[in-house]
C-alpha cells in the first residue's frame, strides 16, 4: 500500500512538472504583459509593479484587428458548417456515386501546404477583386475548415442507427426534414467540434492574412501582432498584452467545449 501511494505521488509530481514546463510560456506572456516599456532581458520573474499600460496600448492599436479576427473566424465557421453538414449527411447516410473518391480527395486536401493554397488564391482573388477584404479572408479560411469539418461530421453521422432514419421515412419525413429534425440534433457533438476547430483555424491564421491582405481594412490580429513587433519591438509588454488578449477567445472556447470535443472526435470510432 505504501509503495503504491509513493508511486502515485511520484507520478503526480512528474505530471505537475511537465504541466509547469508546458504552461511556462503562457505564464511568461502574461507576466510580460503587466510590465510595459521593458525589454525582454530586463523582465522580472514576477510583475512587482503591475501596470495596465500595455493593455491600453494593445487595445487602442489592435482593437480593430481583434474585431476583424472575430468577424473572420465567425464567418469561416458559418460558411464551413453550412457546406460541411449537408455534405457529410449525404456522404454518410445515402448512396452517393463516387463518395469514396470524394472522401479521399478531402483527406488529401489536408496534406496540401497552406502556402500553395495561398498562392493559388492570390491570383483568383485578384481577378475577383476580393483582395484585402474580410470576405476574402473568410473564404480562404473556410477552405481549411470545410474539408476538416466534413471528415469529422461524416465519421460521426456514419455511426447513427439507420433505424432512426427509416422510422422518420415511415412517418413521412423527407430528407431535408430528417436532416434538420433528427440527424443534426443527434450530431451536435461533432458539429460543435467542427465549429470549434474551424474557428481556431481562422483565428490563428497568419499565412492567408499575410498573403491576401496588405491593408488595414482587413487585418486580423495575427498580422497585427507581426506588424506591432516591428513598430514597438522595445515594448514587449504591449506585444505580450496583445498576445494575451488574442489568446483569450480561443482559451475560453476550448474550456467551454472540451466535453463536446471529446465526444465529437471519438463518436464515430464505434458504430452503434
From TrEMBL:
SUPFAM superfamilies: MetI-like. One of its GO terms (cellular component) is plasma membrane. Residues 66-257 form the ABC transmembrane type-1 domain. The chain crosses the membrane at residues 12-30, 66-89, 101-125, 137-157, 178-203, 223-256. It is found in: Cell membrane. Its main location: membrane. Keywords: Cell membrane, Membrane, Transmembrane, Transmembrane helix, Transport. PANTHER family: INNER MEMBRANE ABC TRANSPORTER PERMEASE PROTEIN YCJP (PTHR32243:SF18), MALTOSE TRANSPORT SYSTEM PERMEASE-RELATED (PTHR32243). InterPro entries: BP-dep_ABC_trans_perm, MetI-like, MetI-like_sf. This is Carbohydrate ABC transporter permease. Belongs to the binding-protein-dependent transport system permease family. PROSITE patterns: ABC_TM1 (PS50928). Pfam families: BPD_transp_1. It is a multi-pass membrane protein. One of its GO terms (biological process) is transmembrane transport.
Amino acid at each position: 500500500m505504501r509503495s503504491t501511494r509513493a508511486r502515485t505521488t511520484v507520478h503526480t509530481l512528474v505530471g505537475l512538472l511537465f504541466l509547469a514546463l508546458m504552461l511556462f510560456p503562457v505564464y511568461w506572456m502574461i507576466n510580460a504583459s503587466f510590465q510595459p516599456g521593458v525589454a525582454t532581458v530586463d523582465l522580472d520573474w514576477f510583475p512587482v509593479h503591475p501596470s495596465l499600460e500595455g493593455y491600453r496600448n494593445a487595445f487602442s492599436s489592435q482593437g480593430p484587428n481583434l474585431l476583424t479576427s472575430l468577424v473572420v473566424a465567425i464567418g469561416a465557421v458559418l460558411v464551413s458548417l453550412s457546406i460541411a453538414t449537408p455534405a457529410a449527411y449525404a456522404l454518410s447516410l445515402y448512396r452517393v456515386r463516387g463518395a469514396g473518391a470524394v472522401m479521399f480527395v478531402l483527406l488529401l486536401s489536408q496534406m496540401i501546404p497552406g502556402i500553395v493554397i495561398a498562392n493559388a488564391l492570390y491570383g483568383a482573388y485578384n481577378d475577383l477583386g476580393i483582395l484585402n477584404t474580410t470576405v476574402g479572408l473568410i473564404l480562404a479560411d473556410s477552405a481549411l475548415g470545410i474539408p476538416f469539418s466534413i471528415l469529422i461530421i461524416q465519421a460521426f453521422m456514419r455511426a447513427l442507427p439507420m433505424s432512426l432514419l427509416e422510422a422518420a421515412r415511415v412517418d413521412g419525413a423527407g430528407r431535408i426534414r430528417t436532416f434538420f429534425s433528427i440527424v443534426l440534433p443527434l450530431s451536435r457533438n461533432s458539429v460543435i467540434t467542427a465549429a470549434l476547430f474551424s474557428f481556431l483555424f481562422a483565428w490563428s491564421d497568419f499565412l492567408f492574412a499575410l498573403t491576401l491582405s496588405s491593408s488595414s481594412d482587413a487585418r486580423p490580429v495575427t498580422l497585427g501582432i507581426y506588424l506591432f513587433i516591428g513598430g514597438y519591438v522595445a515594448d514587449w509588454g504591449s506585444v505580450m498584452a496583445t498576445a494575451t488578449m488574442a489568446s483569450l477567445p480561443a482559451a475560453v472556447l476550448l474550456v467551454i467545449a472540451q466535453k463536446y470535443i471529446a465526444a465529437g472526435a471519438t463518436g464515430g470510432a464505434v458504430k452503434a
